[in-house]
Amino acid sequence: MDWDNQYRIRQTPWDKGAPAPPLLEWIKAYPEAINGSILVPGSGAGHDVRALASLTQSGAVVGLDISGLATRLAESFPRAHNESYLTGDLFDLPASQKCAYDWVWEHTCFCAIDPFRRDAYVKAVHEALKPGGQLLAVFFLNPYDDEHLPNGGPPHGTSLEELALRFEGSGKFRIEDSYIPRQAYEGREGLEQVMRMTKLV
Predict the structure, then answer these.
(1) Which residues in the chain show pLDDT less than 50?
(2) What's the pLDDT at 10?
(3) 69, 78, 115, 195: which has the highest count of C-beta atoms within 10 A?
(4) Domain spans, the chain
(5) What's the CA gap between 107 and 164, in Å, rounded?
(6) In sequence order, which residues have a C-beta less than 8 Å from that of residue 157 and are 6 or more positions away?
(7) Is there a contact between 48 and 132 (Cβ–Cβ < 8 Å)?
(8) β-bridge partners, 196
(9) What CATH class has 32-199?
């Protein structure tokens, strides 16, 4: 997928113009839980980044996207607090970005990459987190409709079994919480799963 071109031609259906409802729901339920530095891979226009940066106890919040046009778009919005944006590849993080974050927020990156790269995704997120760091994620289990068919993504769907196998089965993470969010973008009701995981050594 040529992500720069998608932004150039303004074909970005994943951008709903607002933070992910499951993220806002989680922040409301646990307002003091997220603190320290936060990485948001595949951050796009930065709606989730700004929601996280608005938390008074957050440290540096970094949006990472492979598309330079996405980075520029995110930087065009008014700043919420202490957020910043990087153009780069999650699978090729510089040394300064490894073991650098207390939290990773996953929203649209996992479902956008080719499924054969998912083990590499688990490794990359594990490397980005500090020891004991937290992965908070909303996974799009079933994105398929008349427009998006299995094996034809992105977005690519997943299952609870696959997530457990890839994350816990790798020995790199322990799943702490897992539930269907009550709040979702229109059309995604009941099709997503929120998970919080702890990085294991």
Answers:
(1) none
(2) 84
(3) 195
(4) 32-199
(5) 17
(6) 111, 140, 141, 142, 143, 144, 150
(7) no
(8) 136, 177
(9) alpha beta
